[in-house]
Amino acid sequence: MSKANLLDRRQVVSTLLANRKNVVAIGGLGASTNDMCAAGDHARNFYLWGGMGGAAMIGLGLALAQPKLPVLVITGDGEMLMGMGSLATIGLQKPANLSIAVLDNEAYGETGGQTSHTSAAADLVGIARACGINDSRAVTTMAEVEAFAKAVHDVSAGPRFANVKIDSAGLERILPTRDGTYIVNRIRADLGFQPI
C-alpha cells in the first residue's frame, strides 16, 4: 500500500458521526474510542476499554436487540484482526442495521506501532465478503467515507463493512470516561431503559 494521501483518522471519525441522528456508536479499543470522543462525547457512544476483539460482537448484540436503530462500530485493524471470527457470526445473523468501519493504519497502535497483518496478506474486505457481508468495501477517499456515513442510517440494507485506510499520525489522546457502568446506563437511559 502506498503511504501517500492516506486519510486523517479524526476527520474520518468526525465525518462518520457528523449527522448521526439516532446512531448508537461503539468504539473499539484504543485510538478509535479516543477519536469518537474527540468528535464529541454523546449519550449514544459506547466506549470499549480492555475488550480487545469485542467491538464487532458488542455491535452485533446491540443491533439484534434494537433492530430499528442504526448501530455503527468504529474500530481499528488490530482490534478487528483479533475479533475476526465475529465477521462470520455477523454474516450468518445478517443484522440489517449494523455497520462496521475499520480504521486501518496497518499497525498495532496500542502496543507500539508494530506492523499489522493488513500491511501484507490480510484483506479485511475480502474476509468480510467471504463471511457473507456482501456490502464490504475498501475506502480510500473522503467522498467514500461520506457515502458510507449516509448508508449507516439505512437499517434495512446491512450489514455493511468498510475498511478505511488512514494515516498513522500520532495524535493527542482525548480520553472519555472509563466508568463502564456509567457508559452502559447512559446509553440505556437515552434509549428509554432503566439503569442496571
What does this structure look like?
The structure is a single chain. This protein has 196 residues and is of the alpha/beta class. It has one domain (9-191): Thiamin diphosphate (ThDP)-binding fold, Pyr/PP domains (Rossmann fold, 3-Layer(aba) Sandwich), CATH 3.40.50.970. It has 8 helices and 8 strands, in the order H-E-H-E-H-E-H-H-E-E-E-H-E-H-E-H. The strands form 2 sheets. The protein has a 6-stranded parallel sheet with strand order 2-1-3-4-8-7, with helices on both faces. The radius of gyration is 15 Å and the shape is globular.
Indicate the topology.
Blueprint: H1 9-17, E1 24-27, H2 31-38, E2 45-47, H3 55-65, E3 71-76, H4 77-82, H5 85-93, E4 98-104, E5 107-108, E6 114-115, H6 124-130, E7 135-139, H7 142-151, E8 160-165, H8 180-190
Parallel strand pairs: 1-2, 1-3, 3-4, 4-8, 7-8
Antiparallel strand pairs: 5-6
Helix pairs in contact: 1-2, 1-7
Properties at a glance:
196 residues; alpha/beta; Rossmann fold; two-stranded antiparallel sheet; 18% strand; decarboxylase; Sulfopyruvate_deCO2ase_bsu; TPP_dependent_decarboxylase; membrane; carboxy-lyase activity
